[in-house]
Amino acid sequence: MSSVRRTPHRALVALVATMLAVSGCSLPVFSPGGDNSAREQQQPGGSAAPSLSWRNCAEIPQQLYGQKAPRMRYECATIPVPKDWNDPSNGQTFDLALMRVRSTQQKDRIGSLLINPGGPGGSGIDTAAYLSFGPQVQGLPAGILERFDVIGFDPRGVSRSSPVKCISDADLDASYGSEPDPETQAEFDEIVALNKRIGAECGAKYGADLPLFSTEQAARDIDAIRAAVGDEKLTYLGYSYGTLLGATYAQLFPQNIRAMVLDGAVDPQQGMVAGSESQAKGFERAFDNFTAWCRETAAQCPIAPDARATLTELLDKGRTNPLRGSDGREATAGWIIYSAVAALYTELYWPELGKALGALRDGDPDPMFELADTYTNRTDQGEYDNQADALLAVNCADSDEQVTPERVRTLQQEWEKKYPLFGPALALGMLGCTFWPGARDPYPTGAARGAPPIVVVGTVGDPATPYEQTAVLAGMLGTGSVLTWEGEGHTAYPNTRCITQAVDGYLIDLEVPEKDLRCPAG
């Protein structure tokens, strides 16, 4: 199982389409005019920032979500950044893709709000387009959209920004469908061999460039973006892995921050093993909460009253006698686990998980595959984007912790007892970096000395970035202020009025939420 992600992109596509349809929103035909003037801004110290030439790109939300948000202009640009910020004079560059979303009702503009959705591997451009639809789909509040340009960017190696792509669709199918808790050594060795092959193929394609996809390099890109869009100070909203990216920026450029919200905190001080175990505990706890919901709302959950027992039985069936879906895939235990993981990212998907597992029990695996595909970003044609490739490239570049296959095997067996549903899969997920070639470039893990107050948001029921990490990240930064949502799912803003008011007040007026503010789930 891969590490931290925010709600998968395909899930966002489905969610926005559904919620727009329910709301009855009809969008007017609107062709925004682009600001094509090239500007050259100065970074602190007098160095010139790259100039940007903006073009109309309203086709992106149209392609992603079937429509554009009303009263919004969408403009895109590309910015070149050094491949290696440690040696920028060699002239080699990556091209980063940016989107600027600007309300036609903008007033009293504060500046830009830079977004990172997490992953690593998530597209900030896709997310900015989604957030532009506003509160009706849990996008950004109107007050934010009217005061800021929303800037989405695809980090280096991701989607439209010099994407890293080196894992075949067949190998990704094999990885996601593989046994999540191999019993025999032969089964385990088969998974080891797959990870070895992936590492060798990525090394052959990218070689010495692999460490350049690290979080610290991407954090330095953010400062180039800040200068290029003309902001003296950065206003930043980072989700999930985006909290790690933001925390890294805060340590490197504390004096360049205006405001920073880190939602779904990653603890940068955790190593790979500790981080994987933390997620195993988080997903296990989230499934317990889902099981309780099933029992209490049995009319909405076909696998009530004991969802855990049902999932365990289905996993056993997937190992011995897997059903075949309409696209030819076998409903193995691996795919079943990923369907559960996908649904635990947001409470909105709990009813879908109950229905999908109920259908699987009754002989129809297709709804289960549909859920799993929201996590893996697999298309109906069996093709993948590069999110998995980017996630592996970034995570492995960031970590210099050596986890041998023997250590993974031991942890798999230990975590099977402690976290029986998700622990073994998360142990196996570390094999990707075990065989990843190239040098490592770990990010810093210290205080953001000189930074203004940074708001760190945590969700009590978060499976992917467990709540316990919230205070740890805030404490490490030294200027962090904890804001708690007593809800379920991964990330909190802008899910409820209390969270929204607290974060909006900070982003707009720089009013730090009251100390240790806790917002109710409802």
Please give a structural write-up.
With 522 residues, this protein is α/β, with parallel strands linked by helices. The protein contains 19 helices and ten strands. The protein has a ten-stranded mixed beta sheet, sandwiched between helices. The chain is globular, with a radius of gyration of 22 Å.
Write out key terms for the chains shown.
alpha/beta; single chain; 19 helices; 522 residues
Quick gist of this model?
The protein is α/β, with parallel strands linked by helices and 522 residues long. It contains 19 helices and ten strands.
The number of distinct helices, counting runs of at least 4 residues, comes to 19
Low-confidence stretches: 2-48
- The pLDDT mean sits at 91
Helix percentage range:
40-55%
Structural class: alpha/beta
How much of the residues is beta strand, in percent?
5-15%
User: Helix and strand succession?
Assistant: HEHEEEHHEHHHEHEHHHHHHHHHEHEHE
* Overall morphology: globular
Count of strand segments:
10
* Cα end-to-end separation: 31 Å
Instruction: Strand order, main sheet: write it out.
Output: 1-2-3-5-4-6-7-8-9-10
The main β sheet shows up as: 10 strands, mixed
What integer value in Å does the Rg equal? 22 Å
Secondary-structure blueprint:
Layout: H1 9-23, E1 55-56, H2 59-65, E2 72-82, E3 93-103, E4 111-116, H3 124-131, H4 142-145, E5 148-154, H5 169-177, H6 185-206, H7 215-228, E6 234-239, H8 241-252, E7 257-263, H9 272-296, H10 307-320, H11 333-344, H12 350-361, H13 366-376, H14 387-398, H15 405-418, H16 423-428, H17 431-434, E8 454-461, H18 468-477, E9 480-488, H19 497-509, E10 517-519
Parallel strand pairs: 4-5, 4-6, 6-7, 7-8, 8-9, 9-10
Antiparallel strand pairs: 1-2, 2-3, 3-5
